[in-house]
Amino acid sequence: MPGSKVKPRSLKIIALHKKGLKVWQIAKEVDAKASLVVAAIRRAQLRGDLPPATPKPITSLSGLKRIYQIKVGAVGSVLEAQASPDVWEFVAEQTIAGGYNTMAEYVVDLITDAYYEQKGTTDD
User: Fold this and answer.
1) pLDDT at position 124 over 60
2) DSSP codes of every residue in 28-88
3) Distance CA 114, CA 103 (A)
4) Which terminus of the chain is more solvent-facing, meaning fewer CB atoms within 10 Å of its CB: N or C?
């Protein structure tokens, strides 16, 4: 923000963040709520006083849903709603023939194969 000065508490938050302290530790040190510390860090990143946050790897489907704003869905209900009974039978037969316990496992295997084929690698 042009003409605005960085407050002393924000400078202390920046310094503590640079030392590697966690948000809760900084909050305790500067006697503030964690939300204030997070906001100060974000403003410092926008000003260039701190490097931008590094994105955390997606480690769960709930994280994927939040980031991409999509629903995960369920294989059975989608298969029933969007495919014919002939397709259901095909999937059931492929599931059994492939030694899968569930249709979901079969579908995930197909998706995994497609992923590695597109990337140009295989796990065979």
Assistant:
1) no
2) HHHT--HHHHHHHHHHHHHHTSSPPPPPPPP-SHHHHHHHHT-----HHHHHHHHS-HHHH
3) 17
4) C
38 part of a folded domain: yes
pLDDT computed for residue 18 by the predictor: 95
Give the domain extent around 83. 61-119
Average pLDDT over every residue of 38-67: 91
Is there a single domain that holds both residue 71 and residue 112?
yes
Residue 100 lies in a domain: yes
Does residue 89 fall inside a structural domain?
A: yes
Task: Please state, in angstroms and rounded to a whole number, the distance separating the CA atoms of residues 122 and 97.
Answer: 21
> For residues 37 and 55, which has the higher predicted lDDT (pLDDT)?
37
Tokens coding 104? 């979901």
Residue 103: how many CB atoms within 10 A of its CB? 17
The model's confidence at residue 5, banded by pLDDT at 50, 70 and 90, is confident
How many structural domains comprise the chain? 2
Which of 81, 80, 100 shows the shortest CA–CA distance to 89?
80
Amino acid in the structure at residue 53: A
Q: Are residues 34 and 70 in the same domain?
A: no
